[in-house]
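For concreteness, we quote verbatim a single protein encoded this way:
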Amino acid sequence: MQRYVKCHIMLLFDTNLFGDKSGTSVHWKFLPLLRDFGSIKQYSRGSACLAHLYRTLCRASRFDCKKIDGPLTLMLKSNCVNEISHIRWRNWEHGDRRYGYLTLDHFRKALDDLQEGQFVWVAYVVDRVDPDIIPAEIYMHSIVWSATVPLVSFECIEWHATDRFRRQFDFVQGVPHQEQNLDKTHREVLTGPKNLNWPTATTHLFWVMQWTNRYRHVLTEHSMPPQHPLDIYMY
């Protein structure tokens, strides 16, 4: 049974979480994570997956990039246009045919015309998400969602810049601090010695320690209504 579970996890890595452009293979670097079956649940695959997505988007923004890989399902779940398209299809199925004749341009204009009071800033509060999508026990640790920390996945280090979208966590957005400079760490690639222990590597130890202390870096200011941006921020 453990062998089947490990195979299933590797399949998820390949198809959902850490897929590459080949679409048919998964990197060997994940194999050691499955060696000790009892420790599988201790890894933060969610943060690693998000780091992988950020790195993918970074590479895709280059002018010479022709393909994109990574956990793109996360993009679809958070994309407003996709959500509206889903509503359009669902209403078509339910017989509300007027949505079936609206084009993508119509929905884009609807998004452009949104007023501040119509935008849902805190989209992931308990009463807004179906419990089948995000189980209730996940919210027990939801405070760490706002941690401003590095996200670590082997050679990949990406910054979780929650201080730049504070309103999503029901805080007033002030002027953000200078963005974090990952410097040469952001150019790290998976080459060289194949047995490198990334969490203890000299280039990564500093970032790993910040991640380890992530509960010290959550947004902790008093919650305030997010409908009123600061004048200095708007300026």
Q: What stands out?
A: The first helix runs from residue 2 to 17. The two ends are 59 Å apart (CA to CA).
